[in-house]
Amino acid sequence: MPALLLLLSLGSVCCLQRGLSAPPLTSHRGPAGRAQPRSAAPYQYRTRYFSQKIDHFGFDEDHTFQQRYLVADQQWRKDNGSILFYTGNEGDITWFCNNTGFMWDVAEELNAMLVFAEHRYYGESLPFGNKSYSDSKHLNYLTSEQALADFAILIQHLKETIPGARNAPVIAIGGSYGGMLAAWFRMKYPHVVVGALAASAPIWQFEDLVPCGVFYSIVTNDFKKGGQCCSESILNSWGAINRISSTDEGLKWLSHAFHLCSPLKNQQDVAVLKAWLSETWVNLAMVNYPYKADFLQPLPAWPIQVVCKFMKNPKLPDKLLLQNVFQAANVYYNYSGAALCLNTSESATRNLGLMGWYYQACTEMVMPMCTDGVNDMFEPRKWNLHAFSEECFKMWKVRPRPSWIPSVYGGKNISSHSNIIFSNGRLDPWSGGGVTLNITDSLIAIVIPEGAHHLDLRASNPGDPKSVLQARALEVHYMKQWIEKSRHKH
Amino acid sequence: MPALLLLLSLGSVCCLQRGLSAPPLTSHRGPAGRAQPRSAAPYQYRTRYFSQKIDHFGFDEDHTFQQRYLVADQQWRKDNGSILFYTGNEGDITWFCNNTGFMWDVAEELNAMLVFAEHRYYGESLPFGNKSYSDSKHLNYLTSEQALADFAILIQHLKETIPGARNAPVIAIGGSYGGMLAAWFRMKYPHVVVGALAASAPIWQFEDLVPCGVFYSIVTNDFKKGGQCCSESILNSWGAINRISSTDEGLKWLSHAFHLCSPLKNQQDVAVLKAWLSETWVNLAMVNYPYKADFLQPLPAWPIQVVCKFMKNPKLPDKLLLQNVFQAANVYYNYSGAALCLNTSESATRNLGLMGWYYQACTEMVMPMCTDGVNDMFEPRKWNLHAFSEECFKMWKVRPRPSWIPSVYGGKNISSHSNIIFSNGRLDPWSGGGVTLNITDSLIAIVIPEGAHHLDLRASNPGDPKSVLQARALEVHYMKQWIEKSRHKH
């Protein structure tokens, strides 16, 4: 269980229990009739559906499903336009569309049509409708390779059907897992996209390509920078929880102190509480943006600084320390002040496809994570592939293949590819598995010292630090270069 | 039926009816105890087996099968050796091993270990033993993508287990479909192979990338060059067969004149006879080597010249013309003089996996072919995808996806790749779908004017024309360059 929770950070909260039926075949226009102010979602786009093979890599399963994609062509120029193609990741594509303001911001400058393609098995793009998650047989086509093939075939379709698009250069853009997909898309389908912007893409968070502790040590550093003794307070909180939860009275006290909706009953509940707290600190590190934002949760500017204000004294007696920890966590879960109690079984990230990412983590996306309580502020936990594999088998009847992703996408040996920007925020824990040094003069690393998880993909904001403005300018510079170069070919 | 037969040229004669069981797990040494003279197969190698996932691209089917591969390390140098890796195509790998003398000839110069990897579903590498071809469910994993993944995982295994191999540069080499695989392997797995020699690889014989008539027009040109009026004789032979076969007496005469093992009974048999003759001319074009050879059949040097000696007068009366055509075909089928009768149901190519290639042609490897009787010497036949698809569905319960190969491997838009040599013999009908002009300074085309189907991959021979010697020298030059460049990385 803990091993799986460690992987949650890239995705959460299941949208599948709702039992979505197959999406309608007709397209419809987004709710907004006019251009929206840049910071206010939703942007204006059209929703479309495209018939995709369920299995690109085999011929026995010959059925199709409807893949959803969003199109915004307000800035598109038929004569010399480009196409910015968001390689959708683990969630509803409308959410990524509304949270990738960068693409909307640069559309005019690049005469670009924006396309946001939903990843199969997420949002409305369910290959087998509400049976998609029913068993390993139906889940069999949830892989990155199938998703990339979807993208390639969809772009081919757009080029064939949109007047003026045939020779339009396409650039893949994505963040997080979507950034990994953008990079891999350029690597595997360089004939389809002229380049890729892979923001906060931990393509090396696999096998032993980076130390398994790097992720949590970056989280810890963020809290060290967030306020004096902040990380020490968190480090000490685990022992405090363990000591207090050792009695029934303590369990009661803890439940009350943390305003838990369901009181803690046993040590398993305590483990869940600790995992939930860990996830909270992780998510804060990911969304530690320099301005008020609502990405995973509504939060103030530099939220880690805000939570750290409650955790200045790590030497306090257990109960006082934990009351402070509660105040801190409450910033994350209850910044609006509306929550009556906190629910540890409710994940801290919304809008993302928990079930799908669970399955992907149990198959291809095996990202080893570990903590030692020395280089990080967490309870020590080793990476245990065997235990992880057993859990996966129990849950999905599949077993992870940890070496597959490096085998198929090249691991660190990717220098023969070209035209990929890897951008990373130094504050983002995922930057530990990212590319942060130039590989060649066309495999570019951009590091944003004040950046959290793909800050550069967010809409421009008055609170943006200079480093992200520079990063975006450089990204546009390279994209223009790729576009220019591709024009000379036609 | 005819549409399928057109595609036979890349593969034939089923080896599956034999009902091969799973191969032994232990390796054994080849029969020969010492180095063989270069022209005489078998060469000395060890046979090995490696456990491969049946499905690399899905996790529901988690079983493995034993992939056969052959290793020859007599010339291998641990300190600065290279690995030449044959990307096996549609047949028993020992046959390709013994017919790719070029690799044996250059092993010493490149300090190379030779590895010949068998393609799944051929030879002994049957994913489901003798059930592998039982239905579309079992055939589902017979794709080029799965084969490439096998190669990548196998090479990874070799690098991890063979002392000194970890940093050894690997070069993919293949001919025909194997050449396509070699090229695609470098495109999709550039982290695994530093370059590829793709000999006679018709990677553009798909969709409308080249005119569908190019293949048969090259065959025709070969016969035009083979002797005066030779192609006209063949062109006229179809009408003669049609006229004579219109009566029962004519059918009897034809059966006798062609020494057929089973007499012709009806027009369907006549169609088979004509298809069999077409295939004979096609195969002669493919193996029109400048010296006595036994590739598909034992044949004299420049066999087209030999057969054309029998077809100098296209204006002869029907029966005389057809008697000459028989003499010509008899060179191909009965050069040894041992055959008592000719069998039109027996394919003209041996050692290859007919069933497997049939299936591949019905799924991914959809290579449009057509004839018009004007630019070629064949009866006019249009490319009919619909009819082809119906046949495929009848036979395998699958339907071809003609646009998939260009979508996944890039079609003509492959310039962002590197380090691939495309070699083609000008005489080879498959050169029409091949890359015969340089694309970039590292995507090199080598054309061998006197070459038939991958002549350059054959063992060196005193009868080799200068052009193939030059081609091989250039190939070695580039391979050395790739090896040299990769050394600087480590």
Automatic annotation (TrEMBL), chains A, B:
<keyword id="KW-0645">Protease</keyword>
<keyword id="KW-0865">Zymogen</keyword>
<dbReference type="GO" id="GO:0008239">
    <property type="term" value="F:dipeptidyl-peptidase activity"/>
</dbReference>
<comment type="subunit">
    <text>Homodimer.</text>
</comment>
<dbReference type="GO" id="GO:0003085">
    <property type="term" value="P:negative regulation of systemic arterial blood pressure"/>
</dbReference>
<keyword id="KW-0325">Glycoprotein</keyword>
<dbReference type="InterPro" id="IPR029058">
    <property type="entry name" value="AB_hydrolase_fold"/>
</dbReference>
<keyword id="KW-0378">Hydrolase</keyword>
<keyword id="KW-0732">Signal</keyword>
<comment type="function">
    <text>Cleaves C-terminal amino acids linked to proline in peptides such as angiotensin II, III and des-Arg9-bradykinin. This cleavage occurs at acidic pH, but enzymatic activity is retained with some substrates at neutral pH.</text>
</comment>
<keyword id="KW-0458">Lysosome</keyword>
<keyword id="KW-1015">Disulfide bond</keyword>
<dbReference type="GO" id="GO:0005764">
    <property type="term" value="C:lysosome"/>
</dbReference>
<dbReference type="InterPro" id="IPR008758">
    <property type="entry name" value="Peptidase_S28"/>
</dbReference>
<keyword id="KW-0121">Carboxypeptidase</keyword>
<dbReference type="GO" id="GO:0060055">
    <property type="term" value="P:angiogenesis involved in wound healing"/>
</dbReference>
<comment type="similarity">
    <text>Belongs to the peptidase S28 family.</text>
</comment>
<dbReference type="GO" id="GO:0004185">
    <property type="term" value="F:serine-type carboxypeptidase activity"/>
</dbReference>
<dbReference type="InterPro" id="IPR042269">
    <property type="entry name" value="Ser_carbopepase_S28_SKS"/>
</dbReference>
<dbReference type="GO" id="GO:0043535">
    <property type="term" value="P:regulation of blood vessel endothelial cell migration"/>
</dbReference>
<feature type="signal peptide">
    <location>
        <begin position="1"/>
        <end position="21"/>
    </location>
</feature>
<dbReference type="GO" id="GO:0006508">
    <property type="term" value="P:proteolysis"/>
</dbReference>
<dbReference type="Pfam" id="PF05577">
    <property type="entry name" value="Peptidase_S28"/>
</dbReference>
<protein>
    <recommendedName>
        <fullName>Lysosomal Pro-X carboxypeptidase</fullName>
        <ecNumber>3.4.16.2</ecNumber>
    </recommendedName>
</protein>
